[in-house]
Design goal:
The protein has about 325 residues and is an alpha/beta fold. The protein folds into two domains: about 15-125 and about 165-210, Carbamate kinase, CATH 3.40.1160.10; about 225-313, 3-Layer(aba) Sandwich (Carbamate kinase), CATH 3.40.1160.10. The chain is built from nine helices and 17 strands. It has helices at about 25-40, 55-65, 75-100, 135-145, 175-180, 215-225, 255-265, 275-285, 300-305; strands at about 5-10, 45-50, 110, 115, 130-135, 150-155, 160-165, 170, 185-190, 195-200, 205, 230-235, 240, 250, 255, 290-295, 310. An eight-stranded mixed beta sheet has the order 3-9-2-1-12-16-17-15, sandwiched between helices. Strands 8-4-10-11 form a four-stranded mixed beta sheet. A three-stranded antiparallel beta sheet has the order 5-7-6. The longest helix has 27 residues, at about 75-100. The relative contact order is 0.16.
Length: about 325
């Protein structure tokens, strides 16, 4: 194979703002992002695309609960599977059309992916993963009381419902993803961090009520398939120290040691950049060669070293 990259797209980055949350709106944003991923593939990269699903899984769950007086509700793990299919479809079609425009003989394939988590993960007692839309504090607290939700402030951006987010341990369909990649497909996998499952004593799998962090699962996938690059496409062009505060400093490059130091010093918020940096640290510690953080529209420039934050061992 050529150089392999895992490209992680945030679930929030598929939604531009609260006025553009519909499926057609998300489709349009996906098309824009896929233009830049297609350019990366045209440059010779073999790519696995992963994506978040926080807003989308929240929408499905809310829709399910509102309709519970006429239909059965949908478990959280099934909501995750639904988003893998729907977002995978958007990415596959967007890439297909872009490849057709460019005369590229490539095709995408989505793998519905299960990810093993620990039964005793402390996350099940401390929900922390934001899902669904943003609310004002008063409305969020009211909805929490009415519907039995746990609600928290999401990195100062508004209040959201939160659910358990256990640490990913094993990607069940890793071999399938690797095989498709080796056969020349662009693979969409580990969507939404993967469908959370636990392994029973007899080796069987069982879905659990949780949403796995997309960046942690993407980093695990990148390490397990020995990817050359772990690229996180997010809402900022580069990583900053003292972000949004006096003395803010943009970073073009970090070493693994510097990333650990800055994380320990509290520069990366738990609800935003923190999980991304932690996922990259783990990827590099497990033999990863390089990671990159940038905006979706700047992927080509970041690969050329013109922007983005590059993190190396």
């Amino acid at each position: 194979m050529a150089k392999v990259a895992v490209v992680a797209i945030g679930g929030n980055s598929l939604i531009k703002d609260k006025d553009h949350q519909t499926v057609p709106d998300q489709f349009e944003t996906t098309r824009e992002t896929c233009v830049h991923i297609a350019s990366m593939i045209e440059q010779g990269w073999d790519v696995v695309i992963t994506h978040g699903n926080g807003p989308q899984v929240g929408f499905i769950l809310l829709r399910s609960e509102l309709a519970s007086h006429v239909l059965h509700t949908v478990p959280l793990d099934s909501c995750g599977a639904d988003t893998q299919g729907a977002i995978g479809y958007m990415i596959q079609q967007s890439l297909y059309n872009e490849f057709e425009k460019r005369g590229m003989k490539k095709q995408g394939a989505t793998v519905v992916t299960q990810v093993v988590v620990g039964k005793d993960d402390l996350a099940f007692q401390n929900p922390s993963k934001p899902i669904g839309p943003f609310y004002g504090e008063e409305e969020a607290r009211r909805l929490g009381a009415e519907r039995g939700w746990v609600v928290k402030d999401d990195a100062g951006r508004g209040w959201r419902r939160v659910v358990p987010s256990p640490i990913p341990l094993e990607i069940v369909e890793r071999a399938a993803i690797r095989t498709l990649l080796e056969a020349g497909f662009v693979v969409v996998g580990v969507g939404g961090g993967g469908i959370p499952v636990v392994r029973e004593e007899d080796g069987s799998l069982r879905g659990v009520e949780a949403v796995i962090d997309k960046d942690y699962a993407s980093g695990l996938l990148a390490a397990s398939i020995q990817a050359d690059l772990f690229l996180i496409s997010t809402a900022v062009d580069r990583v900053a120290l003292n972000y949004g505060q006096p003395g803010q400093k943009w970073l073009d490059k970090m070493t693994l040691a510097e990333a650990k130091q800055y994380l320990d010093e509290g520069h990366f918020a738990p609800g935003s950049m923190g999980p991304k940096i932690r996922a990259i640290i783990k990827f590099l510690e497990e033999g990863g060669k390089e990671a990159l953080i940038t905006l979706p529209q700047n992927i080509e420039r970041a690969l050329a070293g013109e922007t983005g934050t590059r993190i190396v061992p």
